[in-house]
Amino acid sequence: MNLENNLLMIPGPVPVAPRILRAMSRPIIGHRGKEFGDMYSECRTTLQELFGTKNDMYIITGSGSCAMEAAVSNNIGEKDTLITIENGKFGERFREIGERFGKVRAVKFDWTKGESIELDSVESALAEGAKAITLVHNDTSVGIKNPAKEIGDLAKKYGAIFIMDGVTTIGGDEVLVDKWGVDIAVVGSQKCIGAPPGLSAISVSKKAWESMVDKPPYYIDLKAYKKSANKETAQTPYTPAVSLFFAMQEALRIVKEEGLEARIMRHAKFAEALRAAADAMNVEMFPQLNKYSKYSNTVTAMKIPTGIDDKKLRNGIKELGIQVSGGQGALEGKIFRIGSMGNISKLDILSTVQAVEIVLHKNDVVKKMGPGVEAASNVLK
User: Which helix (H) or strand (E) holds 361?
Assistant: First the structure.
């Protein structure tokens, strides 16, 4: 495999545009000076636009899971109850985080079968009382986009803090933090924003500030981030990954140049093209949708067709210079997933579909070449 020409079509990290890579090569600057402060403020302002919020915004040197832990640990103490909604691997991760800090009441749906969230079950859990509730807006492990607005309405009805993982939607799909009543939302740098991995961002509402625990963790103490950001020269409380901030700034400038609405439409179109290709190749989608859920606009999860196994499928695609993902946990060997997020092109989508079709044809899973590429191409016109 040529690592200089390997197309990442996984649910993150995503390909990083050359101008973002060049930005990372800038000389290191002091993180307490005006130049860094101006960059930090610019990034936070743009992120507020992507989140659809006027809430406070901070950037943490740490991945999306770090921001998830910050969201939970700053609001949940040992006597507090957290409701976690689980219909994917990352909903499960919220539970695992929550169990380290307080009491957890999990509302589980069988994500190994691609089940969607049933709102009645969520409401029943909230009716028993809880300080906060978590939701993964778009769980890439199963390729489902979950009903954030509806969960936000329920959280408001029962007075719970609403914590939302927007790691794989913010910057690539519609996210309306304020309108949906999200108190804390998080995103990772290496997904729809199109920057390298290593940074995350978190928005915090007034309601969330008022519910903070007395003894938060040290490094991800959100009050410390607030205090530092509010200084005359904005800064982070601890040493940030300066080169990654350069990359984040450039990636966010690219988002603004494209326009958020156009970027969201592009992501949706790419996912639609992948679904059309799958249908044309008789490859079955994995998620089991209901009236509240939707197929993801940033990752397409499909069942591995009869006649080929996971290893042959993904290794065959990889030999053609493209990397796609398999299933996680109990779904290993049962599904494969194609990411369609960040700064990718129509050609990237068509190349990936063609690679899948080539491998399926080589293994006699599809009888002829072409229908998948044609179906995707028709969507991308």
Answer: helix 346-362
> What is d(CA 202, CA 188) in angstroms, rounded to the nearest whole number?
9
Q: How far apart are CA 333 and CA 335, in angstroms?
A: 6
Burial class for 99, CB neighbours closer than 10 Å (0-12, 13-18, 19+): middle
Total length of the chain: 381
Question: Which pLDDT belongs to residue 148?
Answer: 98
182 contacts: CB under 8 Å, gap ≥ 6: 53, 148, 152, 162, 163, 164, 203, 205
Contact 304, 333 (CB under 8 A): yes
Domains along the chain?
Answer: 7-13+260-380 (3.90.1150.10), 18-257 (3.40.640.10)
Instruction: Please name every residue paired with 107 in a beta bridge, in sequence order, or none if there are none.
Output: 85
Whether the CB-CB separation of 287 and 293 falls below 8 Å is answered with yes
The candidate with the shortest Cα–Cα distance to 239, out of 30, 76, 18, is 30
**Separation of alpha carbons 19 and 6, rounded Å:** 18
- For residue 54, give both structure tokens: 């006027």
Pair of tokens at residue 189: 């740098």
The two tokens of residue 173 are 């799909």
Structure tokens given for 140? 């890439």
pLDDT tens digits, one per residue of 287-330? 999 999 999 999 999 999 999 999 999 999 999 999 999 999 99
Strands 184-188 and 199-204: antiparallel
Residue type at position 306: T
Cα 202–chain centre separation:
13
Separation between Cα atoms, residue 272 and residue 267, nearest integer Å: 9
pTM above 0.90, yes or no: yes
Give the amino acid at 281: M
| Burial of 219: CB neighbours in 10 Å, binned 0-12, 13-18, 19+ | middle
